[in-house]
């Protein structure tokens, strides 16, 4: 085994080759002959003192990196990697040599292990959440218990032969009570699976983490309204987020900051006071793009916009990248939304703003007004098809319009929608037996 | 057939239905709906068969069963466990705790009757 300090030459060679410097050039700049540098690089001559400092300077690295090679943390990580998969029979006694000779590969191996560990932890968290979510478990237990009670009572009543009228009445009453309870429990479960409550705080995926942060912040960032640096907002809102979620938040904050600069709150607020949340009117009066108007409306606090609006943004694949639900228009926490939403229809008619009333199933006929628009991302596409994203703003139904059209009937998503004969259905509903 | 069955379950309408079908078959049925003092009730009632729900207020059915199996007076008591979960690990937990039979909700009346008949001492 080569001792770690005998690999200084290998590290010099590694760095030199990586930087594309010829051996002769490095030797000349360090004031030694090429043949002597060759001996050093093959670990046949020890190196230290001023010569090491000179070579390190030419290579623009810390001298310690050449003499000490890979850090203790990297070595430890490689050892752990080897112990994770003992059947691979990695040469543990040569770990220093490996890290010294191939620092890039060693670091890659270490990074891969860290990534695998992080992914495994995520899978565990998600599995645990699916298995042990206390609210889900309690709701399902209650539903199954109620179904059992109904089934038992119903089968007693369905059996041939006479049953004492008192018992008969009692079982009828039990079935009635249990069916009401079942309806209540299933409604509660559906609400829980929707995105309009505060249970999104236990997060797993980066998008969920971002959703939870934005919900907690009310989708409003005072620092950016004042023109403070985005970093300041990121520090406040990004605490405890995973790196991936932090990246999403950073991108979201940047877009917010650009919007806030283009449409400062002191200019935008009087417009909303005058025109409400009518996107087309606000766009005309401010000269701003309608999608920017939608995002600014979604960012307004209730003291400026007393009737909050909801906003969904999806990419060209239909995945929701932003969601701000309304009580009368919840949005799915996981997976895709109802394909009947104008959000998706807008992707078929880019640059045309769709404006229409909607009512979501199970909302007792309380409708919203929706405006949806698909616009290209990243400016003009040259000799290629643009990629679109779509915005859909939902706002309370206008009160001052006569002859409103009949609201279109849409769902939340297929799983929790019982709309019959829907051409958009992609999977059966859990609310109906026939789907 | 006139054995004694004790039903420990917190869902009153399940209790009522099970009581009805067992009574109709000639069983003497007693019921209880709390987990905390369930083991004590079992000892005092000394049933021939115990029907025990897993998720009870106060204490889980697994805990109650483990205590019963540690007591000479109830170590051989036939116990039918009821649960809303039917995963293999739940079955394993019930078996480890000492359940004689395991039944997942929603079960049928006929299944309960058949299980009680099979568990009852001859």
UniProtKB/TrEMBL annotation, chain A:
Ranges of residues in domain HTH cro/C1-type: 12-66
Entry-linked InterPro entries: Cro/C1-type_HTH, Lambda_DNA-bd_dom_sf, ScfR_C
Highest taxon in the source lineage: Bacteria
GO-annotated molecular function: DNA binding
Protein's recorded name: Helix-turn-helix protein
CDD domains documented for this protein: HTH_XRE
TrEMBL record, chain B:
Modified residues annotated as 4-aspartylphosphate in this record: 53
Gene3D superfamilies: 3.40.50.2300
Alphabetically ordered keywords of this record: DNA-binding, Phosphoprotein, Transcription, Transcription regulation, Two-component regulatory system
Domain Response regulatory: 4-120
Any one of the GO BP annotations: phosphorelay signal transduction system
Superkingdom, taxonomy of origin: Bacteria
One protein family per Pfam: Response_reg
GO molecular function, one term: DNA binding
Keyword Aminoacyl-tRNA synthetase: no
Protein name, per record: Transcriptional regulatory protein WalR
Organism field: Pelagimonas phthalicica
């Amino acid at each position: 085994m080569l001792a770690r300090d005998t690999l200084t030459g290998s590290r010099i060679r590694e760095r030199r080759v990586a930087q594309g410097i010829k051996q002769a050039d490095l030797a000349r700049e360090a004031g030694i002959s090429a043949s002597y540098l060759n001996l050093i690089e093959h670990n046949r001559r020890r190196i230290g003192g001023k010569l090491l400092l000179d070579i390190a300077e030419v290579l623009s690295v810390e001298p310690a990196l050449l003499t000490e090679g890979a850090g203790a943390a990297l070595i430890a990580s490689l050892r752990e990697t080897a112990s994770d998969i003992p059947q691979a029979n990695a040469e543990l006694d040569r770990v220093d040599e490996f890290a010294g000779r191939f620092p890039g590969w060693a670091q890659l191996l270490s990074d891969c292990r860290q990534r695998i560990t992080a992914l495994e932890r995520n899978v565990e968290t998600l599995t645990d959440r699916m298995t042990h979510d206390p609210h889900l478990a309690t709701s399902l237990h209650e539903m199954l218990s109620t179904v059992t009670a109904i089934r038992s009572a119903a089968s007693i009543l369905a059996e041939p032969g006479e049953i004492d009228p008192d018992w008969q009445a009692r079982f009828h009453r039990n079935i009635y009570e249990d069916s009401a309870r079942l309806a209540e429990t299933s409604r509660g479960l559906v609400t829980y699976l929707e995105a309009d409550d505060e249970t999104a705080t236990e997060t797993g995926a980066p998008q969920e983490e971002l959703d939870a942060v934005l919900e907690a912040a009310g989708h409003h960032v005072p620092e950016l309204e004042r023109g403070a640096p985005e970093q300041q907002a990121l520090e406040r809102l990004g605490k405890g987020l995973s790196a991936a979620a932090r990246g999403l938040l950073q991108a979201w904050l940047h877009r917010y900051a650009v919007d806030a600069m283009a449409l400062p709150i002191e200019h935008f607020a009087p417009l909303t006071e005058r025109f409400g949340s009518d996107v087309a009117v606000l766009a005309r009066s401010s000269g701003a793009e309608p999608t920017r108007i939608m995002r600014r409306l979604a960012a307004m606090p209730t003291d400026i916009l007393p009737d909050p609006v909801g906003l969904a943004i999806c990419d060209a694949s239909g995945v929701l990248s932003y969601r701000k639900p309304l009580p009368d228009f919840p949005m799915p926490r996981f997976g895709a939304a109802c394909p009947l939403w104008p959000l998706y229809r807008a992707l078929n008619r880019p640059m045309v703003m769709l404006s229409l009333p909607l009512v979501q199933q199970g909302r007792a006929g309380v409708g919203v007004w929706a405006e949806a628009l698909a616009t290209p991302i990243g400016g003009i596409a040259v000799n290629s098809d643009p990629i679109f994203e779509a915005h859909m703003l939902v706002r309370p139904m206008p009160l001052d319009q006569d002859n409103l059209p009949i609201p279109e009937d849409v769902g939340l998503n297929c799983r929790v929608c019982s709309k019959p004969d829907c051409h958009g259905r992609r999977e059966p509903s859990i609310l109906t037996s026939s789907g | 057939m006139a054995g004694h069955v004790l039903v420990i379950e917190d869902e009153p309408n399940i209790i009522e239905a099970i009581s009805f079908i067992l009574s109709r078959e000639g069983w003497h049925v007693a019921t209880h709906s709390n987990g905390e003092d369930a083991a004590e009730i079992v000892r005092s009632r000394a049933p021939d068969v115990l029907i025990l729900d897993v998720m009870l207020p106060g204490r889980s059915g697994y805990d109650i069963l483990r205590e019963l199996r540690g007591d000479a007076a109830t170590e051989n008591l036939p116990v039918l466990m009821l649960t809303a979960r039917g995963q293999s690990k739940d079955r394993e937990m019930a078996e480890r705790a000492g359940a004689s039979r395991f039944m997942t909700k929603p079960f049928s009346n006929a299944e309960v009757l058949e299980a009680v008949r099979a568990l009852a001492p001859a």
